Amino acid sequence: MPHPFFIRPATLDDRQAVTALFGQSYPDLLPNDYSADVLQDALPLITRARGSLLACGTYFLAECAETDAIVGAGGWTDLSPSRGVSGIDLGHVRHVATRPDWLRRGVARALIDVTLASAEAHGMRQMSCLSTYTARDFYASMGFQEAAEVELTLAPGVHFPAIQMTRKLADPALA
Hints:
single chain; 175 residues; alpha+beta; Aminopeptidase; seven-stranded mixed sheet; 29% helix; globular
């Protein structure tokens, strides 16, 4: 059965729709795993779409086939979320979110599949992600392994606990 959504690359024109998606997803899904104090400071920072991510060419949107609504987003970059270059063949999964009323419909899985295929096509051999506590089991189901608990600094004095996870991609020598 085909998905009731399709995946396409994001553009700068999608900023408002992606910000709306983050504004629906994160406040609804994260409170089970994060304190109100952490979310009070973090949500205003993590619910805004970044133009650099939307314009990078490796960030993707899941769009409802019937309504054109954005129901999920996610992708990768070769820069770490802390803006550092991390290696010639290491990619970073970035800002994956699904609209809460679209959970368990394969949206995030399809986005990660496209993300990993894109990263591999660009020569990445390993992927890293900074998972929320909420998404930890999802990433594990996608083949990622926990490396460490980390605390992200989102802004001066604003810290957000996360899980550093990694996954190897296909070895080109075996292809």
